[in-house]
C-alpha cells in the first residue's frame, strides 16, 4: 500500500504487508535512511568541497540504536556524540571515538571514568566549562587512574551551557599542568540556531563563529594550539561550515548534527529539500465518534509533543485536534472515506523525542517489504 504525504515528499511511502505490523508502530524506511546518508556527503561537497565525512560526528540522541550506528560506521562516520547514558550503546556498537556532550556532575563523571578505565581501546572525550566541572573530572580521574581527553565548552549564544572566550582560556590554564587532562579542542554547540528564516540562520551562524574565532585567537595569541573545533546542529551545520571555511585557523573542523538521519516535519519546515523524513509512525483508526473526526490508536506516550502537535498525515488535510496519553483525535476532511481499522502514516514533529518513546522500530525495504520487525532502540529512556 502506498502512503502519500505530499507536504514532505512527492514519492509515496510503501508498505506491502500491513497486517504483519501491530500498530502503532515506529517504522524506518530504508531507502529514505540511505538517501539521507548519501545526501549528507553531497551537501558537504556543495559548501566545502572535499570536507571529509569522518568529520561529521552525528549525535546519537536521535536514533539511540546500535543498528543505525553501525550503518553510519559502514558509511564512513567514525566519531559520535552522545549523552552520558548512551555511551555504552556506542561502545557495544564498536565505536572508537565517543564525545560525551554533557557537563558531568560527580556521579556521571564517576560512571564515564569507569568506562574509560574499562575500555582502553576507546577514546572517550568529555567536556568542561567551569572550575567545578574540572574538579569533578579530576576527582574521578584520580579514583580510576585515567587521563581525560576534554573539550572546553564555549557558549556561542544558546546560553545553556559553556563559558565565554576569556573563561575558556582560563579553564585551559587551570588544567594545563594537571596530568589528568589532555586538551582536545573547543566545543561550540549552537542549538539556538533553528530559525525558519534562512537569512537569520546565516546571521546567527556568523555571530556564533565569531565568538568561536575569538576564543581560538586568544589561544593562538599565547602560542596554544587548538587541535579541533566542534559545532552545529542539523539546522545550522551548512551555514556554520560555510562560515568556518572562510576562517584561517589550523584547528580541525568537526560538525555534530543528529536529527538529519531520521529528520522530521519540524526541521523539514526549517530546511526543506535537504533530507527525507525516514522514521514515521503507522497507526490505525480506532473509532469514529462523529462524521467529522476520527480517533487514532496513538497518544503522546508515542509521539514527542515538545515541539508541538503532529501534523504530517497520509490523508491530506487531516489535522490533530486533541490528544491524550493513548489517543489522538483528528479531523476527517470532507469526502474522505475512512473506516475503523484503516491505516494512516504519521510523520513526527520531533524525531529525537519521539524515538525515545519506542522500544524498537521496524525496517521497511524500498519495495515496502518488512526487512526487520523489531530493531531495538538500545539506549531509549536515557
TrEMBL record:
<dbReference type="Pfam" id="PF14031">
    <property type="entry name" value="D-ser_dehydrat"/>
</dbReference>
<dbReference type="InterPro" id="IPR051466">
    <property type="entry name" value="D-amino_acid_metab_enzyme"/>
</dbReference>
<dbReference type="GO" id="GO:0036088">
    <property type="term" value="P:D-serine catabolic process"/>
</dbReference>
<keyword id="KW-0456">Lyase</keyword>
<dbReference type="GO" id="GO:0008721">
    <property type="term" value="F:D-serine ammonia-lyase activity"/>
</dbReference>
<dbReference type="Pfam" id="PF01168">
    <property type="entry name" value="Ala_racemase_N"/>
</dbReference>
<dbReference type="InterPro" id="IPR001608">
    <property type="entry name" value="Ala_racemase_N"/>
</dbReference>
<dbReference type="InterPro" id="IPR042208">
    <property type="entry name" value="D-ser_dehydrat-like_sf"/>
</dbReference>
<feature type="domain" description="D-serine dehydratase-like">
    <location>
        <begin position="278"/>
        <end position="365"/>
    </location>
</feature>
<comment type="similarity">
    <text>Belongs to the DSD1 family.</text>
</comment>
<dbReference type="InterPro" id="IPR026956">
    <property type="entry name" value="D-ser_dehydrat-like_dom"/>
</dbReference>
<protein>
    <submittedName>
        <fullName>Threonine aldolase</fullName>
    </submittedName>
</protein>
<dbReference type="InterPro" id="IPR029066">
    <property type="entry name" value="PLP-binding_barrel"/>
</dbReference>
Amino acid at each position: 500500500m502506498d502512503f502519500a504525504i505530499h507536504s514532505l515528499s512527492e514519492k509515496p511511502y510503501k508498505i506491502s504487508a500491513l497486517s504483519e505490523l501491530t500498530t502503532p508502530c515506529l517504522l524506518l524506511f530504508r531507502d529514505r535512511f540511505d538517501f539521507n546518508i548519501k545526501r549528507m556527503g553531497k551537501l558537504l561537497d556543495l559548501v566545502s568541497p572535499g570536507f571529509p565525512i569522518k568529520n561529521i560526528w552525528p549525535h546519537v540522541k536521535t536514533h539511540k540504536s546500535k543498528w543505525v550506528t553501525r550503518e553510519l560506521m559502514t558509511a564512513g562516520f567514525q566519531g559520535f556524540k552522545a549523552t552520558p547514558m548512551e555511551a555504552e550503546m556506542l561502545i557495544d556498537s564498536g565505536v572508537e571515538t565517543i564525545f560525551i556532550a554533557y557537563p558531568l556532575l560527580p556521579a556521571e563523571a564517576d560512571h564515564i571514568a569507569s568506562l574509560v578505565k574499562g575500555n582502553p581501546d576507546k577514546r572517550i572525550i568529555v567536556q568542561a566549562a567551569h572550575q567545578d566541572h574540572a574538579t569533578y573530572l579530576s576527582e574521578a580521574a584520580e579514583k580510576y587512574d585515567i587521563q581525560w581527553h576534554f573539550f572546553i565548552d564555549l557558549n556561542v549564544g544558546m546560553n545553556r551551557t559553556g563559558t565565554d572566550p576569556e573563561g575558556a582560556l582560563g579553564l585551559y590554564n587551570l588544567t594545563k599542568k594537571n596530568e589528568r587532562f589532555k586538551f582536545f579542542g573547543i566545543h561550540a554547540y549552537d542549538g539556538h540556531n533553528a530559525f525558519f528564516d534562512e537569512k537569520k540562520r546565516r546571521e546567527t551562524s556568523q555571530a556564533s563563529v565569531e565568538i568561536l574565532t575569538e576564543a581560538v585567537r586568544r589561544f593562538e595569541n599565547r602560542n596554544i594550539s587548538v587541535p579541533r573545533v566542534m559545532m552545529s546542529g542539523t539546522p545550522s551545520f551548512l551555514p556554520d561550515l560555510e562560515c568556518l571555511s572562510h576562517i584561517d585557523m589550523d584547528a580541525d573542523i568537526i560538525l555534530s548534527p543528529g536529527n538529519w538521519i531520521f529528520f522530521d516535519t519540524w526541521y523539514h519546515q526549517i530546511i526543506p529539500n535537504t533530507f527525507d523524513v525516514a522514521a514515521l509512525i503507522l497507526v490505525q483508526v480506532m473509532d469514529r465518534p462523529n462524521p467529522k473526526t476520527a480517533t487514532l490508536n496513538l497518544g503522546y506516550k508515542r509521539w514527542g509533543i515538545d515541539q508541538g502537535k503532529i501534523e504530517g498525515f497520509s490523508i491530506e488535510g487531516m489535522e490533530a485536534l486533541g490528544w491524550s496519553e493513548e489517543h489522538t483525535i483528528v479531523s476527517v476532511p470532507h469526502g474522505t472515506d475512512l473506516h475503523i481499522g484503516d491505516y494512516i502514516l504519521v510523520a513526527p514533529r520531533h524525531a529525537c523525542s519521539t524515538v525515545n518513546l519506542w522500544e524498537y522500530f521496524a525496517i521497511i525495504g524500498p519495495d515496502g517489504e518488512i526487512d526487520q520487525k523489531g530493531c531495538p532502540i538500545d539506549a531509549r529512556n536515557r
